[in-house]
Amino acid sequence: MTRIENAKIMVVDDMPNNLRLLDKMLTGSGYHVSCFPKGALAIKSAKRNPPELILLDINMPEMNGYEVCKRLKADSQLSHIPIIFISALNNTEDKIMAFKSGGVDYITKPFKFEEVEARIQTHLKIERLTEQLEKHNEDLEARLDQKSRELKEANERLMILDKAKSDFLTQISHELRTPLNSILGVMKMLMDNGSGSMSSDIVEMFEGSKEKLMSIINDATLLTQIKVSEDSFNREKAGLKPILENAVNLSGMTEKGRTLECGEIPQNIFIYADRTLIDKAFESLFKTALILSRENSAMHFSCEDTEQGNTKLLLMKLNVKGQNIPEAILPNFFSEFSHGQTISSEGDFGLAPALTHRIFKINNAKVEAGNTQDGVEFIITFSEKSVIRENE
């Protein structure tokens, strides 16, 4: 940094000779100098016309240099001004007192002007750099505030759009259900009236298609609601065993000839989540597993505590014997509409994988899928936020 020219320097000393000497030297070096024989006069002038640096004597009548320094530092408009004490006092205690009162440097009389000049330049540069840094910080804070406001506004617009999308899909769902229920009702009446002439395969196909269609509508509506309002769900403590039993019943696992074998489930571990949604997540996971599983096979479920670094995790695994997930689909298996083709004779996955992923995510858990030698393994990992361990 180049030499600072034309800086305003205030000199405070009760000795006229000292004032004249410093005035002459500083003026000759290009500084604008103001001299005062008393501290009170210096303070009054500083408030009216603040200097950039002050050279301050200690031993002065009425108000010594320490008191002058303290009063200047107590004024929010003047506290930033660097004050260099310049005194004949050479004791360590005097120097400590000078720094405690707010001084940034201490020069002992008699002095060499080259030393005074060097220290003045050093502290002027420090002050200028400090001012630049503060200005830079203010600019950064202003830009950050502006970006935060823009981000908030964008987020609010996004929420409005998401809400509009949710309302639209809810309305579409309602509009679809009304004629669909009528069509399904008529079809049911026709089937009931002509049940003798219709094969069981046709009846089964109708019931399966009806169930699949209604499931897609319900899942699409719920998936959209979760995206829009993922922070507004009610969380509560729920035992893992009742959750699994409920999911088995809702998924139709038993009716389709599959069983669930569970390893030991810790009785002191509970899931802290929205109960309705977490039931739906496991139901959707089991429905997904059913599509991949072999007929009359058993799925194996296990649960254990584990650690990652210093963080406790609850790890669950669902092993399914059956077919693998195609490698091309596997990386995005839980994304919406990632399954471009039917990969199982049991039917399409629909939105079940995406719904499973979304519900686990908002409940501080993640679900992953991987192929095994004889099927698929699903891994669910709950973070500490969603696990309650009692009697630990």
TrEMBL record:
<dbReference type="GO" id="GO:0000155">
    <property type="term" value="F:phosphorelay sensor kinase activity"/>
</dbReference>
<keyword id="KW-0175">Coiled coil</keyword>
<feature type="coiled-coil region">
    <location>
        <begin position="119"/>
        <end position="164"/>
    </location>
</feature>
<dbReference type="InterPro" id="IPR036097">
    <property type="entry name" value="HisK_dim/P_sf"/>
</dbReference>
<dbReference type="Pfam" id="PF00072">
    <property type="entry name" value="Response_reg"/>
</dbReference>
<dbReference type="Pfam" id="PF00512">
    <property type="entry name" value="HisKA"/>
</dbReference>
<dbReference type="InterPro" id="IPR001789">
    <property type="entry name" value="Sig_transdc_resp-reg_receiver"/>
</dbReference>
<protein>
    <recommendedName>
        <fullName>histidine kinase</fullName>
        <ecNumber>2.7.13.3</ecNumber>
    </recommendedName>
</protein>
<dbReference type="InterPro" id="IPR036890">
    <property type="entry name" value="HATPase_C_sf"/>
</dbReference>
<feature type="domain" description="Histidine kinase">
    <location>
        <begin position="171"/>
        <end position="386"/>
    </location>
</feature>
<keyword id="KW-0597">Phosphoprotein</keyword>
<dbReference type="InterPro" id="IPR011006">
    <property type="entry name" value="CheY-like_superfamily"/>
</dbReference>
<feature type="domain" description="Response regulatory">
    <location>
        <begin position="8"/>
        <end position="124"/>
    </location>
</feature>
<keyword id="KW-0418">Kinase</keyword>
<keyword id="KW-0808">Transferase</keyword>
<dbReference type="InterPro" id="IPR003661">
    <property type="entry name" value="HisK_dim/P_dom"/>
</dbReference>
<dbReference type="InterPro" id="IPR005467">
    <property type="entry name" value="His_kinase_dom"/>
</dbReference>
<feature type="modified residue" description="4-aspartylphosphate">
    <location>
        <position position="57"/>
    </location>
</feature>
